[in-house]
């Protein structure tokens, strides 16, 4: 470095403008060397690619950099990414050979995807208009529970054009609560409700403020009630109609829940010194230290509609489940060819069942909301053609600035997606997804349901999905090998 500088200084006095050019060159060289050294320094520490933060829309805010510099994980690769090292031990990160190359390929395709999909589709507004109108139009049905029951079948819970949806969501948000009970099974705090007119539903209370960041593993923390609301609206936008209807609702524990509570639920209620009513329910993680209190008259939460009796659920192990053991990798994390292995088993053959394509749709959906906790998936019992029922979406929207790319593993490894899902994704590019979500979520009683950062994260993640598919097209030799 010193040699370059002195050589330039030696020739400098000959002409003033030359001198300035040379000075600029010196600074350029110094700057480039510094950037290279910084890159090398940053890349040589921390784990390899696994979980990636990218700021596709705008430069990172100083607060986001502060947050991530705590983990010393900022990497430069044309953009700023941060890798979260808390998800797995370093040893595991090194051995996640099942997805590492596919993630690198995704990033190779990302710049092209961003250039191709810069502006929203001209057709987006009519989609938003239709979906909003379904919700804002009221008085369509005098029996909303019956309407929702008639809509539901093993492949769809809500039709694409759901005239009367506003009545059903309105009833979920306001119908008097006839009885309340503890949930059956599960790890999360929830209350079973019977609403006037005989409709069953489940209530999950607020556990976090909108802007709170959930640290740690992707499946850490309690369910996010707003995540359930957002997931329902996202499912409509993606034309993946298997998320049970969900709407935000305020309840008073004192006035609406306790007076109609079962004995088992009522015994978990107690009063704080200041008079606040609290409860902790019955579930795997439920205990008095994790109580939720109703300060005054209002406790916000999400009400999710229970599936009708003609659609009983059964749970199956998800082939791409995590191990939930920090020192143990799942087979999909180690084997790039894992999809071929999955396809050997009956329900996952491309030709014999829609199941694997449904799991690809689920991966798109889960990646967008950042749900990495679908260890089991639900289907309608006894129906081979049943869609994957996307219920339990509360482990979502944990950190707007972190993207757990491994949720895309099914797509990265199988390289296949429904043509219709792909086309819907294209309709939502160029910032359209965040715009549409904001428009839909604004109609919920709990608006704003998601922070701006979480809305923008949806657009960024959508580009990742398209980049993954673009790399698949290259790998397999054309879209006809990827889209079905
Ligand atoms: N809307 C619904 N309609 C019908 N059944 C439901 C509905 N929501 C949940 N269930 C049933 O209740 C079970 C537990 O619900 P859920 O998965 O939301 O609870 P959880 O505490 O988050 O469970 P986990 O800890 O396993 O994630 C589900 O597996 C499903 O069988
Ligand atoms: Mn859950």
Q: Approximately how much beta-strand content do the residues carry?
A: 5-15%
Number of strands: 13
Low-pLDDT residue spans: 1-17, 35-89
Order of strands in the sheet with the most strands? 4-5-6-11-7
The kinds of small molecule bound in this structure are: adenosine-5'-triphosphate, manganese (II) ion
Largest sheet, strands/sense/barrel: 5 strands, antiparallel
Q: How many alpha or pi helices? A: 18
Radius of gyration: 25 Å
Shape: globular
User: What is the structural class?
Assistant: alpha+beta
Ends distance: 56 Å
Question: Can you tell me about this structure?
Answer:
The chain is α+β, with helices and mostly antiparallel strands and 484 residues long. The protein has a domain at 124-305. The chain has helices at 2-11, 16-43, 62-69, 90-94, 100-116, 124-136, 144-151, 165-174, 225-237, 253-257, 263-266, 331-334, 338-343, 355-369, 409-414, 419-427, 432-441, 452-476; strands at residues 52-54, 74-76, 80-83, 177-182, 191-195, 199-205, 246-251, 269-271, 277-279, 292-294, 299-305, 313-317, 376-380. A 5-stranded antiparallel beta sheet has the order 4-5-6-11-7, sandwiched between helices. Strand 2 and strand 3 form a beta hairpin. Helix 6 (124-136) runs parallel beside helix 17 and helix 7 (144-151) packs across helix 8. The termini are far apart.
